[in-house]
Design brief:
Layout: H1 2-11, E1 17-21, E2 24-29, H2 34-42, H3 46-49, E3 50-56, E4 60-67, E5 79-83, E6 86-88, H4 91-100, E7 113-119, E8 124-125, E9 136-137, H5 140-156
Parallel strand pairs: 5-7
Antiparallel strand pairs: 1-2, 3-4, 4-7, 5-6, 8-9
């Protein structure tokens, strides 16, 4: 339930959410921008590690945040792709992310990311899996290249472009 809550809350920062577990309010998320929603969901330490990520091509637009390499974890849990605001899993896109981090991470380390891809629905097939959690892109290479390029740019950007106390509204 928590995993699904996080996915829905990330995809919809413009909506207020709360989660109650065993009669205890675990989350009370106000309407906010994506960067602040990430910090509210995963903790204040994420404020320092986030790098804004953006790329626009004729085929796909990418927006979101990636974690700085020094904050990578030993588990894959905090990796989120959304296509047209729908959470997906895609090993080829994960490969693009890992390629961007290739020389920056040690073995067995996995970066944090929340990436939103906007693409013409005619260029994707969502009927790959019954749960609709997997998609197929008409031009997978173009999407892979855009994701990799977006991450490389985000990771090369000066730290001043990170989510900071003043930029909590990113």
């Amino acid at each position: 339930i928590l995993d699904e809550f996080q996915r829905i809350a990330l995809a919809n920062p413009e909506i207020k959410f709360s989660l109650v577990q065993n009669e205890q309010e675990t989350y009370a998320l106000p309407v906010e921008k994506l960067g602040k929603r990430i910090v509210d969901l995963f903790g204040k330490t994420y404020r320092e590690q986030l790098a804004a990520c953006e790329e626009n091509t004729n085929y796909v637009s990418i927006k979101g945040y990636v974690g700085r390499p020094e904050y990578a974890k030993k588990t894959r849990g905090e990796q989120f792709f959304f296509v047209n605001n729908r959470f997906i899993k895609n090993s080829y896109l994960n490969h693009a992310v890992m390629t961007a981090y290739e020389r920056l991470l040690g073995d067995g380390a996995f970066p944090f990311y929340v990436l939103f891809l906007s693409i013409d629905p005619a260029h994707i097939d969502i009927n790959v899996h019954p749960t609709k959690i997997e998609v197929r892109f008409r031009d997978s290479r173009a999407v892979h290249q855009a994701v990799r390029h977006a991450l490389e740019n985000a990771l090369a950007a000066p730290r001043s472009q990170n989510l900071s106390d003043d930029a909590g509204e990113t």
